[in-house]
Amino acid sequence: MPLRVFVAGATGVVGRTLLPRLRERGHHVTALVRQDGRLEGGDLVDAVAVADIMDPRKLRQVVQDATPDVVVGQVTAFRHPDLDVALHRTSRLRETGTKNLVNAAVSAGAGRIITQSAATAYSPSGHDVLDEDAPLWTDAPGRWGEAVRAVAAMEEAVLTCPRIDGVALRYGALYGPRTWYAPGGVIHERVRGSALPLVGEGVGLTSFTHTEDAASAVIEVLTGGDPGAYNVVDNEPAESTEWLPAYARIVGGPTPVSLTLEQAKAQLDWLTVHQLTEQRGATNFRLRETLGWRPTWPSWREGFATLCGLWPG
Question: What pLDDT does residue 19 have?
């Protein structure tokens, strides 16, 4: 059954992948942009709404005008190359912007809201691979703590509002076209420049999510699944000692250098050390078992190779 879908973050890496999938299924799509003319491929949507998600009055107006059945939030600021700046801006968008979006969706009479969350926000304790009941690391230090607290506030706004069904999709490390792992992206350039080392025993786990799989999960939960949080990750969480050298080979970079933990703390930012040494992975079991969702890219190995033109797509 065709739905009226309002997409905030339509110009982001997930939004760009999501729009054609919505169109293929016959849904009526309104795309939110901050500035007119920002949306490439305008033929993929039925309407374009111009507003800033941080402007609650204007946002409420354009969402009401769209009369959506479902509101989808995929807004981040990770396009900015400086991670510290990107995290700070994304935190504000997630905490304040999402509350604005929930209020606008309720005001417009939408029945469901779906937002982008983060499987990287779990506390690095307990089991290596975590499910949705694991605690978020809200007392993490520095900018990362700010980011995780914003994720928690965003999910609270979405999942506890009694007037709308809320779904939080917790993505892993997003890769695909236009991401930091794509040619020319931040991670791609760091690895090619030998600026991302192995640290200690390299046991930090990363769960990856291709942007195509993030978009397919949105499609799955438009009408299916109970309200709540779902991890959207591939089937193969990988330690940094495994994925980083493999990625370096794929992109034609040098073998990553090895640093001790003490050397890494002296030379790298805190978040990079955390990701490489203690971050935990996530399981997609809940989404697989309740909705039958399966990742198109079950392993980051083929996904990275395809992204760099080394695997038949």
Answer: 96
User: Which pLDDT score, from 0 to 100, does residue 44 have?
Assistant: 84
137 by DSSP, 3-state: which? coil
The conformational region for residue 35 under phi > 0 = left, psi -120 to 50 = alpha, else beta, is: beta
Structural domain range at position 161: 4-179+208-233+281-296
Quick check: is 273 in a domain? no
pLDDT averaged over consecutive 10-residue blocks of the chain (313 residues)? 96 95 96 81 85 97 98 92 88 97 98 98 91 97 96 98 98 96 95 97 97 98 96 98 97 97 96 96 97 97 93 58
Note whether 209 and 218 are within 8 A (CB).
no
Q: Which amino acid is at 166?
A: G
Which class for 125: exposed (0-12), middle (13-18), buried (19 or more C-beta within 10 A)?
exposed
**Can you tell me which residue has the tokens 């929930």?**
102
Q: ∠ CA 117-120-122 to the nearest 5 degrees?
A: 95
In a domain, residue 79? The reply is yes
Query: What is the C-alpha separation between 56 and 99, in angstroms, rounded?
Result: 9
Q: Which of 11, 9, 17, 7 is nearest to 177 (CA)?
A: 17
What's the CATH code of the domain at 68? 3.40.50.720
Number of domains the chain is built from: 1
- Quote the CA–CA distance of 116 and 168 in Å, as a whole number: 6
Residue 172 in domain: yes
